[in-house]
Amino acid sequence: MDEHDRLVRNAAGRVFSENTGAAFLSTADCIETVRVRTDTKLPDAELEAVLIDMAMARGMVMIPDL
Description:
- By secondary structure, the protein is mainly alpha-helical.
- It has 3 helices and 2 strands, in the order αβααβ.
- Helices cover 64% and strands 6% of the residues.
- Strands 1-2 form a two-stranded parallel ribbon.
């Protein structure tokens, strides 16, 4: 895992920590927050995959925004 991936995953982890106890998390809101914190250029689909994978590992639920 390169440094940029670590930065993105750390930012995602902080988003999840800040939302502990939330019934669900908005995928679009989480993607936007990670983008602001990391200035990542990853496509939304890749960020969404990372977020969903990390959320599932923490027992959290991500909802897709329609």
